[in-house]
DNA sequence: TAAAATTCACCCTTTTTGAGGGATTGAATT
DNA sequence: AATTCAATCCCTCAAAAAGGGTGAATTTTA
């Protein structure tokens, strides 16, 4: 088994060093290099290609969210872990959306850090259940939808880019019926085009 | 503080009863009623309106996934928890997508069950880090996209239902350029319409 | 330097869209 | 019993959009 190559992007020197010591003390991981900001890390990421990047969310210059996006662009196989003081914040959620697969709390102890990294390489995502809830709620549909179930069916197909004709074929109704539903959807959502309907539907989690 | 009202939908009588005993032994929860299948539960759900529904995934008749969907329709405020033997499966993931907010393993002990329910009422989602990974990977984009960044920009707008003209306006390019990009997208994705492009893009997490 | 990405133009035909109308049936609620 | 709502279907019309083909200039990047 090869040790997993890790880089650390963290502006606080003490933290950077304590993480390094802890990780280098393990038998599964080693720290390849550390960076005080995202810019310096991004300059080398393509050559270094680490297995794991630990990214602080609050960095001078480019913030952690943007850093994660760039890392995933330049080195897609690198798994990003958020390092944060705030256990449960929207910021962590943004980081996960940007491409991170989990996060580590700044004041975590040796065991917590190593076990989080362990979970990671075993294909898991270390995160609190609060964050997990935020994540899954993102693809739960809104139970207070103003639309009828048939209208929701139609809207889903609209969101897949289907035309009136295609929708009518998939739902075994006439094209005119599909158009009727769509007109009613427009009235209920207060929009007047497919694209507006899709935007509103996604924003309000109607589909 | 009122105790949280729970219903259990589980076909195995022994499990149903042991869950009931465990939960009724806690000071924060009580079992209002139990059901051996989804159909019977759904007949009463609108009147009972439990705070929490514990739903087995493998039920005779209607399965747990469908049951969860129906529960969320009829009683949106009821939080569904999956009860399953398989800790990490696509089935659990499907249940979460259907509207569940977490899951409990069938052979969990008293403490695990109560702490999972506790996490739930505190706004968390009890789940393993393996499941968490599956969940977040659902909104990570594919780093091996065949599309250029500009093409991806265009595709995102297509997925919002935008027309050639709207796309050109939003990206400050001419309509013909937008068409060019779209034609190239069609070739790269091997499709020949907007709807096909959207389907493929979503399936492959290109957007 | 060569390849890829980004930009734009003009040809063409067919389909779709959105805005107006209106109508019927059946189920659920009051 | 009355009424509302969902779901189904039909019509017209003009404007917009879509999709296919072909070619080419410019910039960026590997």
From TrEMBL, chains A, B:
Residues with 4-aspartylphosphate modification: 56
Residue span(s) of domain HTH luxR-type: 140-205
Keywords from the named record: DNA-binding, Phosphoprotein, Transcription, Transcription regulation
CDD domains: LuxR_C_like, REC_NarL-like
PROSITE patterns xref list: HTH_LUXR_2, RESPONSE_REGULATORY
Top-level taxon of the source organism: Bacteria
Every Response regulatory domain range: 5-121
Database matches in InterPro entries: CheY-like_superfamily, NreC/VraR/RcsB-like_REC, Sig_transdc_resp-reg_C-effctor, Sig_transdc_resp-reg_receiver, Tscrpt_reg_LuxR_C, WalR-like
Name of the protein: Response regulator transcription factor
């Amino acid at each position: 088994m090869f040790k997993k190559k890790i880089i650390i992007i963290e502006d606080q020197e003490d933290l950077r060093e304590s993480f390094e010591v802890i990780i280098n003390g393990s038998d599964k991981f080693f720290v390849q290099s550390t960076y005080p900001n995202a810019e310096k890390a991004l300059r080398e990421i393509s050559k270094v290609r680490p297995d794991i990047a630990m990214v602080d969310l609050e960095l001078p210059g480019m913030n952690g969210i943007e850093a994660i996006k760039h890392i995933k662009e330049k080195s897609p196989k690198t798994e990003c872990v958020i390092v944060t003081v705030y256990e449960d914040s929207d910021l962590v959620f943004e980081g996960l959306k940007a491409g991170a697969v989990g996060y580590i709390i700044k004041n975590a102890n040796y065991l917590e850090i190593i076990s989080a990294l362990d979970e990671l390489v075993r294909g898991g995502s270390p995160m609190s259940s609060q964050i997990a809830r935020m994540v899954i709620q993102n693809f739960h549909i809104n139970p207070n939808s103003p639309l009828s179930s048939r209208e929701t069916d139609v809207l889903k197909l609209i969101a897949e880019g289907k035309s009136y004709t295609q929708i009518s074929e998939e739902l075994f109704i006439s094209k005119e019926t599909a158009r009727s539903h769509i007109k009613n959807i427009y009235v209920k959502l207060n929009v007047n085009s497919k694209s507006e309907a899709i935007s509103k539907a996604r924003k309000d989690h109607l589909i």
